Amino acid sequence: MDRIASQLGSRLSLVSPDGNRRPATRPTPHTHPHTHPHPHTRPTLILVPHGSRDPRALATVTALAERIREQRPGLPVRLGHIELNEPLLTDTLAAQPGGSAVLVPLLLSPGQHVKHDIPAAAADAPHLDTRVAAPLGPHPLLAEALHTRLVEAGWPARPLGATARRHHAVALAAAGSRDPESAAGTEAAAALLADRLGVPVVPAYAAPTAACARTVPEALQTLADEGRTRVAVAAYFTAPGRFATQSAAAAPWIAAAPLGAHPTLARLVLHRYDQARTSPPVAEQRRLTAV
């Protein structure tokens, strides 16, 4: 439908107000809003996962990188982990021959890694023109992916009726952070998922902190006390790991898989990449912060 509308609009643009046909002109390479520069001029997309000792994590983010390449052919995509897995971000940055790069945190909320560690690693690579994208969440695309994972685990595919809504609920399991902004982001993600499902979605944390205090078992108990007998655990994690496994083990009913290489997650990564391309480079941001 979008393609047909675009073609119709292009044809109508060749008709002047008096009804005569305008001469066709060849569009310039950058006039269409969806035109992407030549592959060789695109900044390298560096995916920045946290890293995990779980071998499934590396396989998952590698598959996600491949899905991103499929969605945008010709875009150079690299991996650079914060810790625990190779390649490390510092090594990936050092291996870049020059040019520009956009670092997209494969993290769902702001925190120490997004605000400090990743920009610091970028600043230590002065041979590159680098930009750091926002974390992936909260965003409606994540709610879409979380919903899909829940349905795959056994959540009803059709909208729930009034009676079923009184018995269903979700605990949204996240890692947790000392940063209050991270907790606010998870709360917002829970609200987006609740709007999509039509049932309560309670944020809960595998590694509770002062800012993210409610544990997954505590959230499950609260929902049980409210008479919710069909409570699922949704995994607000990008890849398998200790926290995702621990949260799933507490589920009284079903537990969804992490977001993983979901095609919607690949779309969101590219969205953050495109947003960051117009932001100030890391060197300029640090200069402004120092003033």
Notes on the structure:
The chain is α/β, with parallel strands linked by helices and 291 residues long. The protein has eleven helices and seven strands. The strands form two sheets. Strands 2-1-3-4 form a four-stranded parallel β-sheet, with helices on both faces. Helix 4 links the parallel strand 3 and strand 4. The model is unreliable at 1-40 (pLDDT under 50).
The number of helical elements comes to 11
Sheet with the most strands: spatial strand order = 2-1-3-4
N/C terminus separation: 50 Å
CATH architecture of the largest domain: 3-Layer(aba) Sandwich
Percent helix range: 40-55%
Q: Give the DSSP E fraction (strand runs of 2 or more residues).
A: 5-15%
Fold-level CATH name of the largest domain: Rossmann fold
Q: What low-confidence regions span 5 or more consecutive residues with pLDDT below 50? A: 1-40
Over the alpha carbons, how many angstroms does the gyration radius reach? 22 Å
- The domain tally reads 2
Beta-strand segment tally: 7
Which descriptors would you attach to this protein?
291 residues; alpha/beta; Rossmann fold; 4-stranded parallel β-sheet; 3-stranded parallel β-sheet
Task: Write a brief caption for the model.
The protein has 291 residues and is an alpha/beta fold. The protein contains eleven helices and seven strands.
